[in-house]
Amino acid sequence: MWLTKQTFNEPGTGKAIYEYAKPVFENNQKTGTVRIGFQVPEIVVFKGERLSHLSMIVFLILATIILFYYGVLIVIKPLQKIMKNSKKIIHSSVPESNNGGQGTNIVNIIGELNKSFSNIQDRITRIESENIELSTKMGAISFEKDQIINLLNSLSFGIITTDLHDNINYINDYISNLIGRQLKDVLDQPFDQIIENDDIALSILQFEQIETAGNGKNIETTFPNFSPGETFGVSLYNLTDKSGESIGKMILVKNITFQKMGEKTQQEFISHVSHELLTPLTTIKSYNEMLMDGEIDKEEMQKEFYNTISEETSRLTRLIQNLLNISRIETGELVINRDFVRTELLFEDCAAAINASALNKNISFQKLLPDTFPSLNGDKELLKVSINNILNNAVKYTPEGGRISFSLYEYNNTVTFEVINTGGGISKNDIPRIFDKSYRSDDKHVSEQYGSGLGLAITSEIINLHGGEVEVQSEPGKETCFKINIPKGEYYLEDK
């Protein structure tokens, strides 16, 4: 819109006054008028065409002022909007002002913006700090989770957890190795499709009917598809949340094959020892009753009965002594009382203990002695027990008319007692187990003989406590050689 021009005459003087006016609009509404008036001086420069040039200059000045004003308004509006939004960010929400922004000072707006930006920066700094703290906590949680997983994977038994629908949500490495599949392959898969086992399926069904939270159900089963020939113990537990609501199940799987074998061996051992105790007691009782009733008149027959009673009594004594020794070994109460041992006396005591038994079976008993008897530092009584166990076995398993040799020698600072006997020999499969407690071979010539199976176990333990070892060399149908090797040790005389 152009300038309006009016001319007035000054009262009194009659001089001409020129007025230029320009209306001011905001939002298409007139908000005011800018007026400029001046009196033409009496000089030539304001006359004629020069006056039109002056009008143009004035117009440009006014236009510049108006444009500057609108420019300020244009700049202020977005700044006000930014300020309001920043306050919303900081204070969640800020009520709108009722004055429509009129009268807002740009300096105040910039000041408010500065405060808002400062608050935003503080908020950002606080959020970054919280993020760092959260990241630290997440890292700690992740570390703890990894530690728990590593712990579960290191267990010697299997763990399976399922949801309420019996879908697998975790297995540890034990189960993974057992079934040959990884967790990712079985995740969210039905348990009964991954591990097909009727015993477990039935137990789960019974367990769900009982619904005893926390109380486990234990069964024994096998996994022919995964580990044939082995026995496993399976325990079922109900998993609950803090409120006690069921959230799934936990299934523990443990290989109990050796445990079951041990239980079976123990039962066989108890049965066998009971028989070994009962047999001599029955013989002693019956022979003693016959002698007391006078049923045996002949003196030679009476002597034979008395010898049998004596032998059975010695047999009982050895068995009970072996039981006591094995009990002391298992409880750690077997103590070695070391002293100076004269091997010639130890050798003769052991040889004398089997002379009678060897003669009764017409066994040739040969003693091989060194020119000089070595000495050693050990427990004479326990060494006698261990050597006698070997010699008694030699007599027991040597057939009538067979041969036993008993020798003593020293080599490389080690004293060796060697027993060789003829007989059925020992199979290669039995040799590694003959020193196990209560082990007896299924070989016919072994099972036919009485015995508890404790003797060699006790011998091995006693010799080990002396720092020595027992060697076995044998084959079926050939001679058997046992070597008891004992370090000489050092012996010092004490001042009395």
Automatic annotation (TrEMBL):
One MF annotation (Gene Ontology) recorded for this entry: phosphoprotein phosphatase activity
EC number, as in UniProt: 2.7.13.3
PANTHER family listed in its UniProt record: PHOSPHATE REGULON SENSOR PROTEIN PHOR
PAS domain segment(s): 144-199
Matching InterPro entries: BphY/WalK/GraS-like (IPR050351), HATPase_C_sf (IPR036890), HATPase_dom (IPR003594), His_kinase_dom (IPR005467), HisK_dim/P_dom (IPR003661), HisK_dim/P_sf (IPR036097), PAS (IPR000014), PAS-like_dom_sf (IPR035965)
Catalytic activity: ATP + protein L-histidine = ADP + protein N-phospho-L-histidine
Keywords associated with the record: Kinase, Membrane, Phosphoprotein, Transferase, Transmembrane, Transmembrane helix, Two-component regulatory system
GO cellular component, one term: plasma membrane
Pfam families named in the record: HATPase_c, HisKA
The name this protein goes by in its record: histidine kinase
UniProt superkingdom: Bacteria
Stretches that traverse the bilayer: 54-76
Annotated ranges, domain Histidine kinase: 272-490
Enzyme class: transferase
GO biological processes: cellular response to phosphate starvation
Sections of the chain in a coiled coil: none
